[in-house]
Design a protein that fits this description.
Blueprint: H1 3-14, H2 19-23, H3 29-37, H4 44-53, H5 58-62, H6 72-87, H7 91-101, H8 108-125, H9 128-142, H10 148-164, H11 168-184, H12 190-205, H13 209-226, H14 232-245, H15 249-265, H16 269-285, H17 289-303, H18 309-325, H19 329-342, H20 345-361, H21 365-381, H22 385-401, H23 405-421
Length: 422
């Protein structure tokens, strides 16, 4: 009798259930009998249903030993279940199953999948170096695999990882290879949707918005054909961002609204905040300031109890700029100062830039100059050309206003230089 079979029998006896009672609606009675005798290894899906019938969790049925000895079939079933849980973004369940395998000897044929799964959990946990290493090692181990889906999954995850961390150039060869393998082996399903989504996101990050839309629309069409909503929130948000960038604002708004609906159902406040932030930025760009203010306030509300300081500060800066444009200068100043007090270097510079604009509007030229010079230092180090252009223009304006003509000319010349290089 295996540990699974032994534990299953113990729980069943404790609840005074027959094998037929336990099996009803899940499998047949003889299958439960075979599990208890150790003659078969149940699939993770069946085991999960049996655990629910027994009012317990799968981990209670698994094993009592710290270093379990799993058969190949048990390991394969476990990994299949982990893949399904990751696809459903049920991270805690996936984590528990991985922990169960931690003491097992993973055969080489399954190590690529195992490392990929460890990479996904590491990424969710914010252990980014480990995630990158696990994905990279998974790719190396699966290059010659008979099952191309294992390699595609690892390529897709590492490519997406680089895009998420502002390194889309590193993702290009990975995601292109994943797409080529999908086409070569005529693989469809959820994996194709995932790769198309991430290829689209990569093109978007590279500023190739029409190519991005083409791939994202293909993913959207597959979801429609399958009658599913796989990664639809991410898909709609990416499409919204692309249409926003090419100034097709009606399409952008439509996709942003669809993304909101998906993330509301998922009860995901951080993603809801991201969509509201993007809507707010779009309304600011189109000078619909009342709607921009509403969306950005809503984004702040979603982030109020989340550990997302950078996103919250970015939202505050955007809202401060909307207040500035509406000439609500005290509100704008207060938000900028709250960001400055958070001590995030990048956000500090952007907050100081907007605060300088506010102070200039209030006639506090000297204070504005101090904040602009502080911001300029960071923008120069990071070569943030768009901000440098605006900073030099504003510096030129301040010097011109105060009749420092030579300094004003230098600032305007630098602004023109950066504009030409952009």
């Amino acid at each position: 009798m295996t540990q699974v079979g032994k534990r299953l029998r113990e729980f069943r006896k404790r609840l005074k259930m027959t094998q037929g009672d336990l099996a009803e609606g899940i499998c047949n009675r003889s299958y439960v009998s075979q599990i208890e005798k150790g003659q078969v290894i149940p699939s993770p899906e069946i085991l999960e249903q049996l655990a629910k019938r027994l009012h317990t969790e799968i981990k209670e049925l698994w094993t009592e030993t710290e270093n379990p000895s799993f058969t190949l079939v048990e390991i394969q079933n476990s990994l299949r279940h982990i893949i399904n849980r990751i696809d459903e973004q049920e991270w805690e369940i996936a984590r528990k199953w991985l922990l169960k395998l931690q003491g097992a000897v993973i055969p080489q044929s399954e190590e690529g999948v195992y490392l990929w799964a460890k990479g996904k959990i590491a990424e969710v946990d914010g252990r980014l170096e480990q995630a990158e290493d696990h994905y990279s090692n998974s790719i190396v181990l699966t290059q010659d695999s008979d099952n191309p889906t294992v390699l595609i999954r690892a390529l897709d995850s590492l490519g997406h990882f680089y895009c998420e961390h502002d390194q889309p150039e590193k993702a290009v060869h990975l995601l292109n290879e994943a797409l080529q393998l999908l086409n070569r082996y005529e693989i469809s399903g959820l994996l194709r949707i995932s790769v198309l989504l991430h290829v689209g996101s990569m093109h978007s990050k590279l500023g190739e918005f029409y190519s991005a839309i083409e791939h994202l629309q293909q993913a959207k069409e597959l979801n429609k054909n399958y009658g599913i909503l796989y990664k639809s929130g991410d898909l709609y948000l990416s499409l919204g961002n692309c249409y926003h960038q090419i100034q097709q604002y009606q399409e952008a708004e439509s996709f942003y609204r669809q993304a909101l609906s998906i993330f509301e159902i998922a009860n995901n406040p951080v993603r809801l905040a991201e969509v509201q932030l993007n809507l707010g930025l779009m309304y600011k760009e189109t000078m619909v300031y009342d709607k921009a203010e509403t969306c950005l306030k809503q984004a702040q509300k979603f982030l109020s109890n989340q550990l997302e300081d950078e996103l919250l500060n970015f939202t505050r800066i955007a809202l401060a700029d909307v207040y500035r444009l509406q000439k609500c200068l005290d509100e704008a100043k207060a938000l900028c100062q709250s960001v400055i007090s958070s001590d995030n270097e990048k956000m500090l510079a952007e907050a100081q830039f907007i605060l300088a604009e506010v102070m200039l509007m209030q006639g506090e030229d000297d204070e504005a100059l101090v904040h602009l010079e502080n911001a300029r230092g960071y923008f120069t180090i990071k070569n943030m050309q768009a901000f440098l252009i605006k900073t030099y223009q504003l510096l030129g304006h301040i010097h011109l206003k105060n009749q420092r003509f030579e300094q004003a000319a230098k600032m305007y010349e630098r602004s023109i230089t950066f504009t030409a290089e952009a």
